[in-house]
């Protein structure tokens, strides 16, 4: 279940419907961005934030796209680690 708030509005709750199985990776505190490499060699960069607005926070997780063949995560020091999908 996901609980979501909105500025000047009500609290909302969402529940997964069970269709498909999403894979999530827990990020390390110093992870900066990830490059998703797809089977057709396309590449997508995903940057990680601790929060994007005033007093916000994030869960520091990455939902893995099932069509990506691998994910390369880079930390703030430039070290990389690879996750095969």
Care to give the gist of this entry?
By secondary structure, the protein is an all-beta fold. The protein is built from no helices and 8 strands. It has strands at 2-4, 12-14, 23-26, 31-38, 43-47, 61-64, 68-75, 80-84.
Question: Keywords, please?
Answer:
single chain, 85 residues, mainly beta, Immunoglobulin-like, four-stranded antiparallel sheet, two-stranded antiparallel sheet, 47% strand
Mind explaining what this structure looks like?
- The protein has 85 residues and is mainly beta.
- The chain has a single domain, classed as Immunoglobulin-like (Sandwich), CATH 2.60.40.
- It has no helices and eight strands.
- It has strands at residues 2-4, 12-14, 23-26, 31-38, 43-47, 61-64, 68-75, 80-84.
- The chain has a four-stranded antiparallel β-sheet, with no helix packed on it. A two-stranded antiparallel ribbon has the order 1-2.
- It is globular and about 40 Å long.
- The protein starts with a strand and ends with a strand.
